[in-house]
Design goal:
Layout (H helix, E strand, L loop, with lengths): L11 H11 L3 E5 L5 E4 L2 H6 L17 H16 L5 E8 L5 E11 L7 E8 L1 H23 L3 E6 L4 E5 L2 H6 L3 H6 L3 H4 L7 H10 L5 E8 L5 E12 L5 E10 L1 H23 L3 E5 L5 E4 L2 H6 L3 H4 L28 E9 L5 E10 L9 E7 L1 H5 L1 H17 L3 E5 L5 E4 L2 H6 L3 H4 L13 H12 L5 E9 L5 E11 L7 E8 L1 H23 L3 E5 L5 E4 L2 H6 L3 H4 L13 H13 L4 E9 L8 E9 L7 E6 L1
Antiparallel strand pairs: 1-2, 1-5, 3-4, 4-5, 6-7, 6-10, 8-9, 9-10, 11-12, 11-15, 13-14, 14-15, 16-17, 16-20, 18-19, 19-20, 21-22, 21-25, 23-24, 24-25
Length: 628
């Protein structure tokens, strides 16, 4: 049952007046001079003061200075254009001094006999403007975050296919700007290596299910390098199960792929090391039965691996005097290990001392066994005195080594220096012990060595090397290479270990070599004969500037082109034979006369040239010298 309509009480005029008076919008009537004829009470509620003639000298000052001219022009436009509605935004000062953003419309009804006024309706939109500004700021921040993510984020419409957005990370991953992807929708597909394009077909099939799908493929970066890409794509399907949109994240996994390759190589290397190592490795199950043993078992105990597989690991533990095998202390927690020195019976009947380390790796799915490392230490046990002699020899090596060794405490004071310090810097060890080398460093190098020492002594780095200048006792600076190692935690050392050597001659030689290379380059660049380098495939990799005078080409026009393309077709068979001879006779030269194409095709286009071809090694570029 509908509500019964009640007649409105009061006149329409009263109702309209109430709407004007109590509405949130401000309604103001102006005469042709800008004087206020009427303004609703909401004017005071919004702006804090009664309506005034805002277009007189006093009232116009309530408008923000930057908006006054536009407001005055708008008012005059309304005067000149009756019955046309104008919209404006401006800032108007509140009674308390702050400015509010106002939005309103105005229309000239001065010629309407029933109105005879300019009607302006406006309201406070400060909150709206503030929200817009916050939204812009938020969008800017989100855009900045979006474009600073290393992964490429993109969106595309389907049917027809159209990429709508690419993040700026595409430049880092692909070498192309986002604008290039947006202007060429299929650029991303064109960059995929031909043999990997099938991955996109597989991806499309997976996306038809509506699930997030991931594939990996290779692309050619703009710089020519090959990169691995992992693409994770989210499809959006319509009610008919058709893909209408895809959103994807592409990331460069080249380093990951390289790491995997390195890991595989490492595993192969690790297996090779185990197979070739003199120390042995055995894997046994939870029953103590050997499932694998490395070939070193033969050199250690005289058995072949096949003799040991299926046997108990007790072979490594010789029975004691009672005839029983002592297994006490061999209980291992997951990941735990124990090391023992014990006897074992060699196949020939002799006894050998073994160092055996057993590690519980059952919780490691890649191993799932007890790992037993073993090695023969019989000679070590028999020759304990050799260790002491070895230590003496080690000290003798240090004392007589041309390269220096220094030990310093945490305050950088020397506690030991090898005698070679005197040959390197002219000081005796006694002069330096207890002192620091800080004052001996070249002023330009002190900051570098201070930072390196601080990083290593604080544990941020364990090792580091540097080349600096240190003042010799005679007053001259010498280039010294330092290799520093933090050994404070090693109870046998408890110091900063510094290995040092004089590299002054090497530095000077390197500088002389660089100068020599510069002179060599100058001679080539100024030579009137043409000197060119080409790869094993015949592509020109360098050609001297003289080629411009000889053949009319700029060097950069010929880089990457085939040297054969410059030769006269009639002479190609013979020239190929000459080049084949050179390839088969590395380091030898051949002189020949041939015609080369000149850039000036207006003439006969061919110029005779006397050439010498020399190939030093098959893997080095050919050297072609031309003279005209």
């Amino acid at each position: 049952m509908g509500l019964k309509e009640e007649p409105l009480s009061g006149s329409i005029t009263d109702i309209l007046r109430a709407m004007v008076e109590y509405g949130e919008d401000i309604i103001t009537l102006f005469d042709g001079t800008g004087k206020v004829m009427f303004s609703s009470s909401s004017h005071k509620n919004v702006l804090g003061y009664d309506a005034t003639d805002i277009f007189n000298q006093q009232g116009i000052e309530l408008i923000h200075p930057d908006d006054r001219e536009a407001m005055i022009n708008s008012f005059y436009d309304m005067l000149s254009t009756p019955s046309v509605r104008f919209a404006s935004r401006w800032r108007q000062r509140h009674q308390d001094g702050h400015y509010l953003w106002m939005e309103g419309t105005g229309i000239n009804k001065l010629e309407d006999l029933h109105i005879r006024a300019i009607i302006c309706n406006y309201r406070d939109i400060s909150g709206h403007i503030e929200a817009e500004q916050k939204l812009k700021q938020t969008n800017a921040e989100l855009t900045r975050v979006f474009n600073n993510i290393d992964e490429v984020i993109y969106s595309a419409r389907r049917n027809p296919y159209e990429v709508t957005q690419w993040s700026e990370a595409c430049y880092k991953v692909y070498g192309y700007r986002s604008e290039e992807f947006l202007s060429n929708y299929y650029l991303w597909y064109e960059l995929i290596l031909p043999e990997d394009k099938c991955m996109i077909d597989e991806l499309n099939e997976m996306l038809q299910t509506g699930r997030i799908s991931t594939v990996q493929y290779r692309i050619r970066h703009r710089d020519g390098s090959i990169r691995w890409i992992e693409a994770r794509v989210t499809p959006t399907l319509n009610e008919r199960g058709e893909i209408t949109r895809v959103d994807g994240v592409n990331r460069d996994i080249t380093d990951k792929k390289l790491s995997e390759q390195i890991l595989q190589n490492s595993e192969r290397k690790f297996r090779a090391l185990i197979e070739k190592s003199k120390d042995g490795v055995a894997l046994s199950d939870k029953d103590g039965i050997i499932r694998y043993v490395s070939p070193a078992i033969h050199s250690v105990l005289g058995y072949e691996p096949s003799d040991m597989v299926g046997k108990a690991t007790a072979i490594f533990r010789f029975p004691d005097e009672s005839g029983s095998i002592n297994t006490q202390g061999w209980t291992l927690s997951p990941g735990g290990s124990v090391t023992k020195m014990l006897y074992a019976r060699h196949k020939d009947g002799s006894l050998r001392w073994l160092e055996v380390t057993a590690t519980n790796q059952f919780d490691n799915p890649a191993v799932n066994a007890i790992v037993t490392n073993f090695r023969d230490i019989t000679d070590q046990k028999v020759a304990q005195m050799r260790v002491e002699n070895s230590e003496k020899r080690f000290r003798a090596l240090i004392e007589n080594n041309k390269e220096g060794i220094a030990l310093s405490d945490r305050e950088r004071r020397f506690i030991y220096l090898s005698p070679s310090i005197q040959d390197i810097l002219g000081y005796t060890p006694e002069e330096m012990v207890g002192a620091t080398a800080l004052e001996l460093y070249h002023p330009d190098d002190r900051g570098k060595i201070r930072d390196l020492v601080l990083a290593i002594s604080s544990g941020q780095r364990m090792h580091g090397s540097i080349q600096i200048r240190i003042c010799h006792k005679n007053g001259n600076y010498r280039w010294i290479e330092l290799v520093l190692s933090n050994q404070f935690d090693d109870p046998a050392v408890q110091a900063m270990v510094t290995n040092f050597r004089d590299i002054t001659e090497q530095r000077e030689a390197a500088e002389a070599l660089a100068n020599s290379e510069q002179r060599f380059k100058y001679l080539i660049e100024k030579n009137q004969d043409v000197i060119a380098l080409s790869s094993g495939e015949g592509a020109i990799t360098y050609i001297s500037p003289a080629v411009t005078d000889v053949l009319g080409y700029l060097p950069e026009e010929l880089i990457g082109t085939s040297a054969m393309a410059l030769m006269h077709p009639d002479e190609l068979p013979a020239n190929i034979g000459h080049l084949t001879w050179c390839n088969e006779n590395p380091g030898k030269s051949m002189f020949m006369t041939l015609r080369l194409r000149h850039k000036d095709v207006a003439g006969d286009g061919w110029r005779p040239a006397l050439s010498a071809i020399s190939i030093a090694l098959p893997s080095t570029p050919s050297c072609l010298t031309c003279a005209m």
